[in-house]
Amino acid sequence: MAFFAKGRIFAAALVATLALAAGAEAAPSCGKNGAGFDAWKQDFAGEARAEGVGQRGLSALAGATYATRTIAADRAIHKAFSGSVESFMQRRGASAIISRGRALKKANAAMFANIERTYGVPPGVLLAIWGMETGFGASMGNQNTVSAIVTLAYDCRRPDYFRPHAIAALKLVDRGALSASSVGAMHGEIGHTQFLPGNVLKYGVGSGNLRDRNTALASTANFLKAHGWQPGASYEANMGAIAGWNSASVYQQAIARIAEAIDAD
């Protein structure tokens, strides 16, 4: 009897193992379209739970939809940073950013002075990033943030890069800093200067509400400081910190040129 009992236990364990293997195969590790998105979300929920995401975040994950506009934008992203620095600056309205940046610098001199005292980052680069990213808060995006970042975590193009940001977005939902209906930029960026969710957790200061102008600018300065910003050094010497913000060379050079023009006023 003991032999047969052990045999039944072994058989049951084998069936369970095969079932788990079949389940693992059913949940794709990534996808190139929306076909496997719902199955992947169920699998990702277990990963999110293990990372400390709570019920509010998990509910937001369950409600996320495959963001086709985000995928389209991601596939075309190389075009946005193509061409010369001069053509990039023209497309992005560098002259208007410089003019408006100078005016905002004067109107908010005390705020920028306080940020520079605290983080060692001058106003020019903050204004250049703010103007480049959202037109000084005029256009912070209308894509659902959770759906965008979760879709990019699922997409096969760069899942390892975006999965930590997806976990961070769900944690921000748990904290009330985001909701399931929050909107932002196409790649899940948030607020005046367009922070990815993981960077909100790492570098966000004060309330962490990046839709608040002062918080967003101070958080951006904190990010640059953490990425090696050298107070008082030239923009050429600080290109590494700017590169931490955006890896595209034309973007980095445009930010430096715009910032120098704003600081020179």
Brief descriptors of the model:
265 residues; Lysozyme; 2% strand; disordered N terminus; mainly alpha; 2 strands; two-stranded antiparallel sheet; 66% helix
- CATH architecture field of the domain at 84-141 and 187-264: Orthogonal Bundle
The oligomeric status of these chains comes to: single chain
Total helix count?
Answer: 15
The helicity comes to 55-70%
The string of secondary-structure elements, in order, is HHHHHHHHHEHHEHHHH
**What is the CATH topology assignment of the domain at 84-141 and 187-264?**
Lysozyme
Strand content: under 5%
For the sheet with most strands, the description reads: 2 strands, antiparallel
The whole-angstrom Rg is 23 Å
- What strand order characterises the main sheet? 1-2
The low-confidence parts are: 1-26
| Helical/strand content category | mainly alpha
Kindly report how far apart the N and C termini lie: 92 Å
Mean pLDDT: 91
Label the overall shape: globular
The total count of strands amounts to 2
Protein name: Murein transglycosylase
Signal peptide: 1-26
Organism: Mesorhizobium atlanticum
Pfam family, one: SLT_2
Describe this structure in words.
The protein is an all-alpha fold and 265 residues long. Among the domains are: 1-28; 84-141 and 187-264, Lysozyme, CATH 1.10.530.10. The chain has 15 helices and two strands. The chain has helices spanning 2-26, 37-50, 55-63, 68-75, 77-80, 85-91, 94-107, 109-119, 123-134, 145-154, 159-175, 197-203, 213-226, 239-245, 249-264, and strands spanning 143-144, 183-184. It has a two-stranded antiparallel ribbon with strand order 1-2. Helix 7 (94-107) packs across helix 9 (123-134) and helix 9 crosses helix 15. The longest helix has 25 residues, at 2-26. The radius of gyration is 23 Å and the shape is globular. The protein starts with a helix and ends with a helix. 40% of the residues are buried. The model is unreliable at 1-26 (pLDDT under 50). This is Murein transglycosylase. Keywords: Signal.
